[in-house]
Every structure is written in structure tokens, then in C-alpha cells.
Amino acid sequence: MALGFIKKIFTFGKDTATEPKPEAPIAEQQVVETPVAEPDIIDQPAIEIAPEEPAPEETASEETAEIPAAPAEEDEDRDPLLDEAEAVNPEADYHIPEDVEPEIYPLPHAPTPPAAQEPAEAEPVSEPAAEKVVAEPEAGAQDGTVEEEPVEEFVAPVEEIVEAESEEDTPDDIEDPVLAEALRAEKPTDAPALPKGFATSAKAPVEEAAPMAQPKRTWFQRLREGLARTSSQLTGQITSLFTKRKLDDDTLQDLEDLLIQADLGVETALRITDTLASERYGKDVTGADVSRIMSAEITKVLEPVAKPLELDLSHKPHVILVVGVNGTGKTTTIGKLAAKLSGAGLKVMLAAGDTFRAAAIEQLKIWADRTSSDIVSSKLGADAAGLAYEAYEQAKLKKSDVLIVDTAGRLQNKAELMAELEKIVRVLGKLDPDAPHTVLQTLDATTGQNAMNQVEIFRNVAGVSGLIMTKLDGTARGGILVAIAAKHKLPVYFIGVGEGIDDLEPFEAKDFAEAIAGVGA
Ligand SMILES: Nc1nc2c(ncn2[C@@H]2O[C@H](COP(=O)(O)OP(=O)(O)OP(=O)(O)O)[C@@H](O)[C@H]2O)c(=O)[nH]1
To answer: Containing H/E element for 444?
Structure first.
């Protein structure tokens, strides 16, 4: 069954990583305003999720899923910062009206499903079709409140797909080598379609989705442009340092200072100066010599941390908790991640857990809309852990592959932040002992050394398992990523180089090192 599931995901997503989102009958996106226990703020009745959009050619069904009540949590006082904020600006929109209707954002296009007579065998079944199947109550997973009529025309249980495929002749079964080769060329593989930068911990034989035809160069150029300020500042200073000077102790010391000032960190600065000394001591040195050595040494530091974000899709949902200080790009990065995942055919649920800022909730809704992701949100000031609980339940119910939980990042009150994040982790852990499966921290490159301190704090508070550095476009402080890698040795999964939906790329050590050192142009 596990293998069947993995196969379903990967088979479905195949071909989608390199192309626009497939035209498949996608389950409707749903925005759920969910009640979360916060008695001090709003008396929240149980809210029903609005009826689901009927599947194409399906007669409208009236299913309504009731959100299970939030877990009983100890009473928490209203956030004092909220009171302060309201005192400062009573006009501000700190409250979402109590009677907000659950909103439904149907997907713009739901194409006609395949013909009724040709289920799984004709074509690999699409994700939404399988979704209809898995949406049926499953032992221990649902309480039976959702009774979705299977859509005959394009529904095929996952097991059937796997069996149907395994009964087909494989190229290895065919004796004629020419025919076998032709079949190999024709037959699509079962490789998963996880986007670049993600990996799976599944045991099934898997490969990364084929890279897109063009983007490497385009991306590298953009990375270069983004890091141009970091690079030109650094290389300009290095060049002037070595103009008509032989490499001696003084120049080595000057270089070391310069590298430390560029946020690269003491450890990496010493690696670079040591290597340079061993190669060129007493000789003439050019800026190009230094850049070459710098690039090689930085690559060595970064290579161990440049890792793909591993998803264990057997969890369903794989829960990603996103933490970080306000303004470091959490919400934007969540949107960019959701775009990659849903673009690859995975079903994504977002949880607007930054309940401290109304704009953050609205911002995430916009990203959900843009990325065809489901979203669970609550009212301003609601208990974030309760919301995470509800989001997990909803993700389970809707068979989401990935649940991404946004959080507030109030460093102004560390104790409160700690309590909130710990509570979210605790609540998720009750639902799945391994959840959250990934704790991602976003770091704003423009903050330089502050970013280093933030890792320290959030690592202790939330058990950060990997990093995404944002705003590497246009900053002169990109070197901080190297210092953080050397010190914390946490995986760096992606880097952000812009505010756009596509401005997030898998982190690649050599590209980054070359861009900073200004070589390989
Ligand atoms: N230039 C640039 N801007 C970015 C990048 N990532 C995010 N931003 C911008 O940074 C600002 C803050 O981003 P958010 O995603 O709201 O940050 P946040 O951590 O969610 O902040 P709060 O909602 O206040 O907790 C927004 O204006 C984003 O558009 C990036 O890679 N490059």
C-alpha cells in the first residue's frame, strides 16, 4: 500500500515539474476560516466548511464536513502586544468580522475527466482522480462525516493503478531487443516529479524530476545579478589590496580582515588565507588568484549544507513548519514553495499560523489563491497551536501531501514566541509523533550578522532542521550565508532572490560560491 501510494504521487507528478500545472480535474481550493479556541477574544461557534465544489459532470452533492473541535488547551491570555497595537492604532483592522463566511476559491479551470469506460489502464490516473478515491473514509483517518461519491468516470483506487501497471509487459519481459528498446523509449517511467530542490525519503526507486531545459543559465545569471553587490564590493577591495604587492603577513592579515568584514566568518576567512599562503606566499598575487581560491574554499564550506528538502510523502501530510523573525520572508517563501509543490502535482495545504498580524493572514490567502493551495486560517489573535491542529486535521481529511504552517516571529517577546512555537510543535506531535517533519527557518540576508543570531535562537526554540535565505538579490551581505553554514552546519535548501513566485531556487554550493567570488562569469 505504501509503495502504491508513493507510486501514485510520483506517477501523477511526472512531467509536471517542467511544465505548467497540468490541466487535470483538480479538487477545489478551499479557504477555511476555522474556529480556534481563543475564548478571550471571540466566542467561536463550530463553523462548517462550505459544501465542496462538485467534480466535473458530477451531480451536485451536499457534503459538508464539520471541523472537529479544537483540542482542549489551557486558557491563554490575550496577547498583550495585541492590546498595545490596538491602543496605538484603534482604527487599524485588527479584527476579522466574527460572522465571516467560509470562503471558497474554486480553481479557474476543471477540465473534463477521461471517458468512463477507460479507467486507469488507458492513462495514468491523475492526482485529483485518485484524490476522489482516497477521500473515502479510511480506517482511523476520518470520522465518516465526509461521504464523497466516487466519480466513476475517472476514479481508480491506487492499488488498482499499481496492479494494472505491474501486469503490463515491461521492456525486460520482451525478448526482441529492438522492441524492448522501443518500449523503453515510449514507456514513461515511474520517477517522481518532485521539483528541483526537493527529495524524497521514500524507499521506492525514485529520481529527481528532469531539470528544465533552459533555466540553469538563466538562474545563474540571476544569482549573479543578485549577488553582484556582495561580489563587486569584495572583489573590488581584494583587487586594490593586491595591486603591486607580494603576498606577505601584512597582506594576509588585511585580506583576512576584509573577508571577515564581508560577513564570511572567521573560519572561512582563515581557510582562504591559509590556502592562499600555501600557494603564493612571497609571490605576486592578483585579484583573480584570490577569487579562484575563495570560490574553491567557499564551495567546500557550502557543499555539505546544500541539500534538497526531503519530503516523506508517506506521512500525508508531510508537515513543514516555517519559522523566522518578522519580515524575513516566511509568508512569501511559503507561497513560493507552494507554487513549486502544487506545480508538480502535489496537494498543498497552507495554515495561516501567523495570527498576530492580519496582513499576514490575508497575504497567505493570496498566495494560496495564486498557487491553487488549500488554506486554513483563523481570526487575528487566535491560538496558533489550535490553528495548526485544525490545519493538520483538514490536511488529513483532504489527503494533502504537504501542510505548510506559517508562524509569527515576534522576537520582541522571546518568552512568548518560545511558548507559542513549542506549543505548535507539541500539538502537531500529538497528531503525528514525527510532526513537524521539517522545521524551516527563513533568514533575511540583508540583516547580516543578525541572521546568525536568529539561527541560534530559533534552533533552540523550534528545533530548526533547515534554512532558506531570502533577499539575496541586491544585498552586499550575501557572505553571511557562508558564515552560517560554517557555524551551524544546517542544510540550506533554497535561496530567495526576489519577491516573485519563481524567485526561489535550490541552493547550489558551487554556483553560490562562484557568484560571490566573481568567477566563472
Ligand atoms: N527582494 C526580496 N524581497 C523578498 C524576498 N522574500 C521576501 N521578500 C519581501 O520581504 C517582505 C517581507 O516578506 P514576508 O513574506 O511578509 O515576511 P514574513 O516573515 O512573513 O513577515 P511577517 O508576516 O511580518 O511575519 C515582503 O515585502 C516580501 O515581498 C526575496 O527573496 N527578495
So the answer is: strand 438-444
Residue 83 CA to ligand 1 centre (angstroms): 25
Q: Mind giving me the DSSP string for 324-384?
A: -STTSSHHHHHHHHHHHHHHTT--EEEE---TT-HHHHHHHHHHHHHTT-EEEE--TT--H
Other CB atoms within 10 Å distance of the CB of residue 205 = 11
pLDDT digits (tens, 9 = 90+) for 7-54: 333 332 233 333 333 333 334 455 555 444 433 323 333 322 333 333
Instruction: Measure the CA angle with vertex 117, ends 114 and 119; round to 5°.
Output: 60
ipTM above 0.85, yes or no: yes
How much distance in Å is there from the Cα of 187 to the middle of ligand 1?
A: 43
263: left (phi over 0), alpha (psi -120 to 50) or beta: left
d(CA 309, CA 442): 14
Contact, 205 vs 221, CB < 8 A?
Answer: no
* Alpha helices, H only, 50-112: 80-88
pLDDT, tens only, 353-379: 998 888 899 999 999 999 999 999 988
Please give the Cα distance from 252 to 263 (Å, whole number): 17
- Rounded to the nearest whole angstrom, what is the distance from the C-alpha of residue 328 to the centroid of ligand 1? 6
Pocket test of ligand 1: the residue of 222, 322, 323, 332 to mutate, having most ligand atoms within 8 Å of its CB, is: 332
